[in-house]
UniProtKB/TrEMBL annotation:
It comes from Pigmentiphaga humi. It holds the Pfam family DUF1850. InterPro entries: DUF1850. This is DUF1850 domain-containing protein.
Length: 129
């Protein structure tokens, strides 16, 4: 059974059927790619892997990160998240949200959401049996 990712901003809400997703973006100053891969489990988000292609301006890879294919890979010490809040600014590039079926800018997934309002991503709550 597929889990679902809930997207919210202001009064906007959308649901994306997915067991996993990847969120990537470019640092607004360094222009370095940052990527986080999540699994949706037990009504929470789990960071399975994070990677950054370089360092600088407060984005140094954490201790224990390993260099693979030109990117530093790591898993945060606390990989479970209830939600992720993302700023949405005209001064920084958009996030890219990818599932197994589709990859598109966050703005596309959230068509109709108010501009400039932070987006919250969370596991859609499901009843346990």
């Amino acid at each position: 059974m597929l889990a679902a990712l809930c997207l919210a901003a202001g009064g906007f809400h959308a649901t994306v059927a997915a067991d996993a997703f990847t969120l990537s973006w470019r640092h607004s100053i360094e222009k370095i790619e940052w990527r986080e891969s999540y699994l949706i489990r037990d009504n929470r988000l789990f960071i399975a892997d994070a990677a950054v292609r370089g360092s600088g301006a407060g984005m140094d890879p954490p201790e224990g990160a390993r260099l693979e294919h030109g990117a530093w890979h790591y898993r945060p010490a606390q990989p479970w998240r209830e939600s992720i809040v993302l700023s949405r600014s005209e001064f920084a590039g958009d996030y890219l949200l990818c599932t197994e079926r589709r990859c598109a800018p966050l703005e596309t997934w959230m068509a109709g959401a108010p501009a400039g309002v932070p987006a919250e991503l969370s596991a859609c709550r499901t009843e346990r049996r």
